[in-house]
Amino acid sequence: MDKPADPASHLSWWLPPWLTGTVAAPQQLSQPILPGWSFVSITEQNSSRPDTEREIVAHESYGRQIGRLLDAVAALIAERAPEAPDLPEFTALDELRARIDAIKCDAAERRIDTLRDDLAALRRTRPNAFAERAAALRMLLDE
């Protein structure tokens, strides 16, 4: 019997193809990870009416709901009598609102930076479309 050219080839009959290199891997692989996944899973175990809750969240996000509650509680705190004691919970609430506002401002700055980059690309590739958008933005900024 002739000696195999590849010493490992006599073992390859029982190895899976991906291990022996006989199956080519795709040159490009793109697959969504957890399509439709959400940070919060609404089920019968955490909601008495999950279908209703999902519909509410589809129209009014948890962030929007919590933001409105924070605003209302802050307004109630502001209406307190001046001689009422400052409670640490109120300070914590104010600090939370400040952190949330900072996150919103950071996100707005990133969106503006992206818009600036998009406008620069539009200026290079479609000057007429850029001129129209720039004029509309100037009018808005001058209001």
Mean pLDDT: 83
What oligomeric state do the depicted chains represent? Answer: single chain
Q: How many helix segments?
A: 5
Query: Helix content range of the residues, please?
Result: 55-70%
Question: How is the biggest beta sheet arranged?
Answer: none
- Summing up helix and strand content along with how strands pair, one would put the structural category as mainly alpha
Could you explain how this protein is built, in words?
With 143 residues, the chain is mainly α. The protein folds into two domains: 41-84, no CATH class; 87-143. It is 59% helix and 0% strand. The protein has helices at residues 17-20, 50-59, 62-78, 88-125, 127-142. The longest helix is centred in the C-terminal third of the chain and has 38 residues, at 88-125. It is flat. The chain starts with 16 loop residues before the first helix and ends with a helix.
Summary tags:
143 residues; mainly alpha; 2 domains; 59% helix; 0% strand
Secondary-structure blueprint:
Blueprint: H1 17-20, H2 50-59, H3 62-78, H4 88-125, H5 127-142
Helix pairs in contact: 4-5
Short description:
The chain is mainly α and 143 residues long.
